[in-house]
Write a structure and sequence with these properties.
Blueprint: E1 3-7, E2 10-13, E3 23-28, E4 31-36, E5 42-46, H1 49-59, H2 64-75
Antiparallel strand pairs: 1-2, 2-3, 3-4, 4-5
Length: 81
């Protein structure tokens, strides 16, 4: 279940066999960024500013971070976060 949401042309992916910290992948064209779920800090990669801002606005929506964290934990049950 990699893609959990599509925001215009931006895919939001979560994978199993991942690493900490809990994060999601935002993919747009040839760009990808890894964004921490709890802080919404980008710790790897890059998106164009407009797409990056759209992803952050979406992720700050009511209950979205909790929802993403639940999926991350379900896909990666052996990680302690």
């Amino acid at each position: 279940m990699p893609t959990v949401h599509t925001l215009n042309s931006i895919k939001i992916d979560l994978y199993s066999r991942e690493h900490l910290p809990p994060h999601f992948h935002a993919l747009y064209a040839e760009h990808e960024s890894l964004i921490e779920i709890r802080t919404l800090d980008t710790y790897e990669g890059w998106l164009p500013v407009r797409q990056h801002n759209a992803v952050l606005k979406w992720a700050r929506g009511k209950g979205i971070q909790e929802w993403l964290l639940e999926i991350f934990k379900r896909l990666n049950p052996n990680l302690r976060s």
